[in-house]
Amino acid sequence: MTAATLTATTTSSTETRLNNAGGKEIKSAAGFDLFPRPPRTAYDLYQDEKHTRRVSLGCPVLDAAFRGGLPGHGVVEVSGMAGAGKTQLMLQLLVQQVRDAEAEWRRAKYATPFVAGRSFYLSTEGPLPAKRLAEMAAATCPEDSGFAQRVLESVIIVEAKNVEDQLYLLTTQLPSLLADASLGKIRLCVIDSMSALFRGEFSLSKMDTLERAKMIFTMAKQMKRLSDRWGLPFVVTNQVTADFAAATFGVWEGGNADVVGDGVQPALGLSWSNCVHTRFLLSRRDANNRIPSFPTPGSNPPSNPATADARSTGQSSRWIRHMRLLLSPSLPSNLSCRFVLETAGVRGVRRTEMNEDGRPRER
User: Which pTM does this prediction carry?
Assistant: First the structure.
């Protein structure tokens, strides 16, 4: 028997075995993963919780400003200058996932699990500030002495040292963690930040630009696939780059004019901008509405910006921060909210809480 005949016979035998009931189930399961899902109506999508649920920002003022919080599905980007509050907002999301999960367990009248509301945190800019996370958790639920520990135990932290690490963690390690039922349900994936490694490893040459775009599309495709399969959002932070031509004037709540965007735009260019579903921009200004200067080279930023603001001025309202919606498929792009950083985390500020000089009132 020749190799060709053996191959044909083996193929024929395999096809015969796959024609039985068990084989049909295997082919059906494989087809479900490899080919598009069957068509469904808009009402089916409307009833699908993973497409309609919102993720709380951990502050009722911010949640109200953005119609319930962040989308609970897809890729959500939070960009801004250094010190704008991006990482602080990510830490607050980690705390809020545990609060929401434990509230769900209590409503269901089950005993609160030892660890609930797991989150996946991929860091590309150094270790997660665990002390600050514990401080925020303890200040958020001071009546529960064990809450801070449960928050710390709920976060699965991985660090990427280069772009290849980042791709491996998203395509290999994260799917395994999501499928591991013993770890508990992962409700949120955070990448802080998306652009840090790309900006350091790729040049402006045509070859590097094409390779970078290919890597970005691969990561974005994986995030969207996992978001759809497991019903969770990917919230990623992003750095900004100068865009002097894009600085336009807008009107904030109350009629105070500000420069929208501060002459910056999210990093990674058009390739990445086509991959995100929702985009927010964070910015900060001092009491005189001036953009802060960049930190001195070699200086270390404070681990707790709220403490640093209070230490330098005697109050926590030195910086007036803004969170603005730039892109959303379901919300108007003019939504925005002021906020301050406190020991307990990020707190939104209503117009009625502002002093005449534009500073948020002390609580």
Answer: 0.77
